[in-house]
Amino acid sequence: MLASTLERMPLGLRPFGPTRSGMKTLLIDAPPRRIVSSTLTLLAGGEGTALSALGYHRVDATQIDVDLPFGFVLDGEHFPPGSYHVRSGTPVSFLRA
């Protein structure tokens, strides 16, 4: 699972498909099927029923509930196994000097 509220990704990558606002997710069924041949299509924002049939799903969501049997690492911080509720928060503004 990959989720982001970014409207533009680095290097012009578009794993979530067309550019749009809000929380976007890319869900990949396990085990991934044809991952090597699908990677370029996924990163370029390609769409189609073929990707969905292979287990690659793009979903727009306002919130996601995830039950994880194993811990995970997010931005270098380790989180324990458990149930997590993910939602968009208040937008952050960055200051430039």
From TrEMBL:
It comes from the Bacteria. This is Uncharacterized protein. It comes from Sphingomonas aliaeris.
